[in-house]
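#struct-help
A.M.: can someone run this one for me? Single chain, 385 residues.
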Amino acid sequence: MPGADRTILITGARAPVALHLARLLHGAGARVVLADTPARPIAAASKACARYHRLPPPRFAPQEYAEAVEALIRAEGIELTIPTCEEVFYLALAWRGRTMPARLFAPDIDLLAEVHNKHSFIRLAERLGAAVPETTLLSARGDVEAVRGSSRGLVFKPAWSRFASQVLLKPQPEALDAIAPSPAMPWVAQRFIEGEEISAYAVARDGKLKALALYRSRYRAGKGAGIFFERVEDDAARALVERIVAGTAWTGQISFDLMREASGRVLPLECNPRAVSGLHFFRDPARFADAVLADGAEVRPDVVMPQTVRLAMWIYGLPAALRSGELGEFRKAMLEGEELLDWPGDSGPVKAQWRAFAEIAGVALRQRISLQAASTRDIEWNGPD
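D.P.: on it. Structure tokens below:
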């Protein structure tokens, strides 16, 4: 098998995608070491995890984080490090600043920052020949005033953000008084596009697509992260992803929020240079590892049924269904969706999710922030400044 006799480090062990990736690579014969900041992340409870290392929080202690990662790599004999969440930015900085004895499965920090920024990503896609929505950079109050009159046709969001946090969707002009953009913390104003939202998860090596899953999120945690995923097929979306990964010679995981217009044209909205839930549509360890770690052909998704985390559906999906009066649809979704944490012979993470949730809830209470904000507080990366 392509992963046999290799020791691979997967970071971001709090995330279901890290757990899923560990299971795939372990199933292909790799020894998988996991690392993250929390004490009890779900992936640490998996049989796929050979060892779990707790690290300093990269957002608040980046130097200590880099030193701990280097020590971990040397101690465990790591050959390849695969990030899954926003710690990818801190790892890229660590790889730039020191000689690491393992490869990082991600681009350099400059390209990561370019695609993560919601304005520079649109400009990049435009240079690569893609059709893009009109997107304006807001770096001062004057920039906000210039678009105030057309606010009802725009979407406003911080250039550095995730999970649709702070998004203003077609706001009234007076709602813009709450925006205070600056050169260090800019915002963007993007044309609101009518259509069907498509999420894309991809893996590429040297600009060649090695895995791609397209899907939609029927239920979300608030306005942002999806918690119930259905596969879709769209040739225009695939072509757009191929154009961007080829034009950037991308190596690593990359994800996109896209919008399909009624005409069939697909436009990019933003990019996340990390893993997202489309990974859960791959369940064949040998084929996935052969494509991603070796020189195998592109691997196609082999999961057909919708994927979900039932605990998140109870926490977020049920209240949304009660508010909208769509309880019947919620029941149907719960029957249709497969629990994405389930894996034959590996029940530990399903039980561990309660401990992991309690740890996040504790952070939320102490910091007086939302559960979603608490889940990424220590790894968020909001630009080079």
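A.M.: thanks! The chain has three domains: 1-106+347-385, 134-191, 196-344.
D.P.: also worth noting: Residues 195 and 262 are 6 Å apart (CA to CA).
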